[in-house]
Each structure stands twice: as C-alpha cells, then as structure tokens.
Design brief:
Blueprint (H helix, E strand, L loop, with lengths): L9 H11 L8 E9 L8 H10 L3 E7 L15 H18 L14 E5 L4 E2 L5 H23 L4 E5 L8 E2 L4 H13 L7 E6 H6 L4 H10 L3 E6 L25 H12 L6 E3 L9 H23 L5 H9 L3 H32 L9 E6 L2
Parallel strand pairs: 1-2, 1-10, 2-3, 3-5, 5-7, 7-8, 8-9, 9-10
Antiparallel strand pairs: 4-6
Helix pairs in contact: 1-2, 3-4, 7-8, 8-9, 9-11
Length: 373
Amino acid sequence: MRPELAEMTPERFAEFVAERIVPRVPENTRIGVAVHYDREVDEKSAKGLAKALKDNGLALSMGSPGLHYYWGFGGIASLDPKERNAANDYARRAVNVFLGPMKAAEDPRCPIVTDIWNGSFGYEIATSLVREMLKYADESIASLLQHAQSLDKNARMGVEPKPNEGHPAMIYQTGGDVLALRGRLERAGHDVSHFGLINEFGHTEMVGLDVVQEYAAASLENAIIHVHANSQGADGVRLGGAGKYDIDFEAAPSSTTLGIAQILIETEYRGWLEHDIQPHPYDNAEQNIDRVVRSICNWEAICRTIESGALDAKKLRALASAKNMMAFEDAVRDAVASAHKLSKQLYAAGLGRSRNHGRGGQMPKRSGATGGA
C-alpha cells in the first residue's frame, strides 16, 4: 500500500517507530511494538529485531502466533487432527521466539504478552461438534500455557475474543467466553495468575455488547492481561458499530473509553495499552502516522481527564443515587469534551517536539504499544 515502505525490514521498522512516532507522543509514554510470528518475526530475525528495539529505546509488548495465516478452518480447534497438531506445534515455536531471543527486548516493568487471537478458531455451521472444538481449543491453550510457564514462570498469556471474522462464528466470541475458559483451566489445576482476557474494544462493539461491562467483569477476577484500544465508530461522529466489519479506527474520547480508563486506573492495571488500528487506504503515509500519534494522544488525554477527577466516582454515585441522570449525563459529556480538547493540545505539542528534534527524559508512566493483530 505504501511504496516508500516497500523495503521495510524488522530492524528498520524499529528505527522508523523511534524516528517518526516516539518524538511526537506525550513524554511519559513508553513505546512498545507488537509482532506476529512468523510474518513479522521468526527464528532468523528475532535476535536482530530484539537488538534493534533495545537500541532504539523500544520494547516488545506483545507477540501473537499468526495461526490464521496457515490454518483457516479451526487451527488449534480443528476437527482435523493433522491441522490441529500442526497449529499446536506452530504456536509452541512462536512462544519459543517470544520468550527466547525476543525476551531481550522486554521491559521488566511491563512484560511481553502472548496473544492467542482466535481468528482461525471458527466454524460455518453450528452443530454439537462446537462442543468438541471448544474442548480441543481448551486443551491446546492449556498445553501452550504450561509450555510458556516452563520457559518463564511469570509468562503472561491471554486470549483475544472476537464474535466473527474470519468465520461467521468463532470459538471464543466474547470476554465472558474467555473468563469461562480461565475458570475451566483453573479448575483443571492450571496456574492462571498471569492468564486471562485480551479485550479489543472494537471486537466487543462489533457484536453490540458493552465494552465497559466486559472490563468491569474481568477486573473483578483480576483477569485483564493486555488491552487493545481502538474503536468501531458509532460515536456520534464516525459511522460503524454493531453489525459492521472490523473497522479499527483509532481510540478516541467517548463515554466508553473514559469508563474503561477509569476501571484500569482504579484497579491499578499494570500492562500494555496497544493501539490496534488499521491504516486507511485513502491516507498517505504521513496521515497514517498521524493516526497512530493521535490515538496515543487521545488515550493519554482520556487518562489525564480521569485522573483530574472529572468523573469522580463519589460524585457520580451521588447523582445516580438521586436519579439525577441529566446531571450525570452532562458530567460525562463534559469529560468527553475536555479529553478531546486536551488531546488536541498534546498532539500539537508533539508536532513542536518533532520539529525541534527533542524529547524529554522523564521516566515512563504510561505504556503504549503500536502494531499488532
């Protein structure tokens, strides 16, 4: 799509992020990069990529086995034992890379996460065989988790649910499905202290569910492992939402994103916040970069708005108790507007730093990742 990026290598990508994105984001942001095995990193390129990330002040935030590239009809949940075994072997090789040579690029304050995206774990016709597919997927994930823990006892791993795409129906469709899986693994005797939900905002919105509720439920079980921030739209400005394909707009201030941020802050979430967005074909390369920067600025503005007390839980609770929902709504709308205004200021400040080729040396407070599924 971008001729000027045609010769991109893993090492050059690390330099590209450091040169074009890092100087433009808020100075308390720690930038990481998410990769897929084996399209973006493999056994041959891992050592060089890990060095390039470290040399450029970046970290590896997430690694995902690219099972969907090769096994399109079930993967680790397939009813075909040959496909299932091949997918399991592939996933294990991916973990060996993430927790082997790529471990050198880990930030110990924010460890690498293995993301099991279920893009190939699906079906077209619903029959009782779905139960069998779920059983196979559970067994495969349990085995992969044990393998990861044999390499690093604190290995972090999660499942990223999605209702559909690339099949009409997927094995793990919602956050509730992943929490149920986590419970089954725990009852079977597996250590799930570092295993849980990788929720992508847009995936929940695709099926018309409430993303804030999914985060609230997962937080009660301390099961939020990694966050994929984006939007389907349907926010009063951009079209999208339930029943649409996975649009992957950048994250933006909304009542939903403010609610998620407040849950993460109140529960002291310590993990990566990944900006999982798609370049738009009508944008040039500079505009694509701008969207990444804008998404990071939006999230920082959302967090600062929450930290300012704009949606103080005590105040909201009093309004809700009094059933004064118009004032409640105004408080949320005002917070959304405040976050949007602040984001524009952060974005403009980043442009100034970029022109001056400078960047502060503050210790990171927020962890953001770019790239991903």
